[in-house]
Amino acid sequence: MTMGCKAVTMDDIARVNGMSKRTLYELFKDKSQLLEEALIYKTSNMICTFDKLLNESGSFLDIIFMAYESQSNVMMNSNMILVQDMKRYYYNIYKNVYSRVIEHHRAKSFECLARGEKEGIIIPGLDKKLVGEIFLEMGPMIDTFLHSPEKGYSRKEVFKTLVLYYLRGISTLEGIQKIDDYLKTKEKEEV
Questions:
Q1: CB neighbour class for 64 (10 Å; exposed up to 12, middle 13-18, buried from 19)
Q2: Number of domains into which the chain is organized
Q3: Each residue's pLDDT tens digit in the chain (191 positions)?
Q4: DSSP secondary structure letters along the chain
Q5: 92-98: long-range contacts (C-beta < 8 A, 24 or more apart)?
Q6: In CATH, what number is assigned to the domain containing residue 53?
Q7: How far apart are alpha carbons 151 and 120 in whole angstroms?
Q8: Among 37, 55, 115, 145, which residue's Cβ finds the most Cβ atoms within 10 Å?
Q9: pTM for the structure as a whole
Q10: Containing domain of residue 149, as a range?
Q11: In this structure, is residue 21 part of a structural domain?
């Protein structure tokens, strides 16, 4: 999907998948249905991966640090092209799929923040619903910022500055120390 969904034709999809266009149309009535089902499949996998990470991770910060590590410019840039095309040419599909993802993130961010508070990482008594909404707003901010490549920042740098430092601001002293230790280790690895 590095070309976006508008530039890709049903012929392209059939060819890449080793089938005839007729077979493809027997499976999907049109490109819109194919895109919707593909996005539902992709987002369902993403949700399952996140849920697995949440259930198997050692701590709240493990989840955050794994999210930081997974910031890949190549992967995210191809997703951005797809998202831009979906918004522009297939808005209803985009809106339906995106709303499902947002609701999942909303529920899980509350759960993660409660876990962070229980572990002594997040300041007790914060309005987790509000903090979760702020985290949700960071995603579009990161994407909007990255639409300006002339600024020269990687997705990882933007994530670190926006998310990790925000998280540091709502952390206990123990949480701040752990975040600082992690960032120092990462700086040493990058040198």
A1: buried
A2: 1
A3: 556 788 888 999 999 999 999 999 999 999 999 989 988 888 888 888 888 888 887 789 998 888 777 765 444 554 667 777 888 899 999 898 888 888 888 888 888 999 999 999 999 999 999 999 998 888 777 777 766 667 777 777 888 888 888 999 999 999 999 999 999 998 888 77
A4: -TT-TTT--HHHHHHHTTS-HHHHHHH-SSHHHHHHHHHHHHHHHHHHHHHHHHHH-SSHHHHHHHHHHT--HHHHHHHHHHHHHHHHH-HHHHHHHHHHHHHHHHHHHHHHHHHHHHTT-BPTT--HHHHHHHHHHHHHHHHHHHT-GGG---HHHHHIIIIIHHHHHTB-HHHHHHHHHHHHHHHHHH-
A5: 93/32, 93/35, 93/36, 93/39, 94/39, 96/36, 97/36, 97/39, 97/40, 97/43
A6: 1.10.357.10
A7: 37
A8: 115
A9: 0.74
A10: 10-190
A11: yes
Amino acid letter for position 24: L
Amino acid 4 reads G
Q: For residues 64 and 155, what is the distance between their CA atoms, to the nearest angstrom?
A: 15
Name the packing angle between helices 91-118 and 73-89 (round to 10°). 130
